[in-house]
Amino acid sequence: MAPSAAGSARRADARQNAEKIVRAAITCLGRSPEASMNDIAKEAGVGRVTLYGHFPSREALVEAALVRLLTEGDKVLEAVDLTGDPRDGLWALMESSWLLIAQAASVQQAAQTVPPPGQVRQPHAKPEQRVHDLIRRGQAEGVFRTDIPADLLARVLHHILLGAATDVAAGRLDTTDAPHLVAEMALAVCAVPAPTQHRAARPR
Question: What DSSP string describes 20-61?
Fold first, then answer.
């Protein structure tokens, strides 16, 4: 084999090994956020030398797995049609986001001890901005409540998704029920409050 061809083959093998390692990390961390580098190496079918050759620390591998999940999840969310009624868009977005959050919950838990570098913040930014923009449009069109800031509503929706993912992982919530339940809760949170004749005085 010519030197250039041999070099290309080595680079292709290296890319394949890196891909296998990241996929194995997603699988192992999805089962348990405490998964070790040995667990991931076994899942990927590579040795420790190969593993550490691509990812010098567990922190680096966890970050790579989280970035991969967020980036792939964002591609799914980009396909959601948000141009119509904001309520329909929110329902579709929450159902689609559920899958992303469910897959990423354990990896995000594993990453909680890892300082969030720019490469992690960047994939987070687009989904968050998408939710914020949808809520603000719904507020402007009068179908979402305006007495609570859009940013706070968006954070509440994120906690709903995380809570559902936690309950599914703990066996308290059926996976098939989670998508429509999180969508129902999201709409309930964002809905314009019904007027009441007798509203209790609120302390200030």
Answer: HHHHHHHHHHHH-TT--HHHHHHHHT--HHHHHHH-SSHHHH
Question: Could you give the CA distance from residue 90 to residue 139 in angstroms, rounded to a whole number?
Answer: 12
If you ran DSSP here, which 8-state letter would residue 195 be given?
P
Q: What is the pLDDT of residues 85-117, one digit of tens each?
A: 999 999 999 988 876 776 676 777 776 655 555
What's the pTM value of the predicted model, to 2 decimals? 0.69
Q: What is the pLDDT of residues 124-145, one digit of tens each?
A: 567 778 899 999 999 999 999 9
Cβ proximity of 87 and 187 under 8 Å: yes
Q: In CATH terms, are 1-56 and 59-204 the same topology?
A: no
The CATH number given to 59-204 is 1.10.357.10
Query: How many CA atoms lie less than 13 Å away from 47 in the CB half-sphere?
Result: 2
Q: What is the DSSP secondary-structure string of 104-151?
A: HHHHHHHGGGS---HHHHHHHHHHHHHHHHHHHHHHHTTSB-SSS-HH
Which CATH number is 1-56's, of 3.40.50, 1.10.150, 1.10.3470, 1.10.10?
Answer: 1.10.10
- DSSP secondary structure code for residue 63 in this structure: H
Q: Where are the domains of the chain?
A: 1-56, 59-204
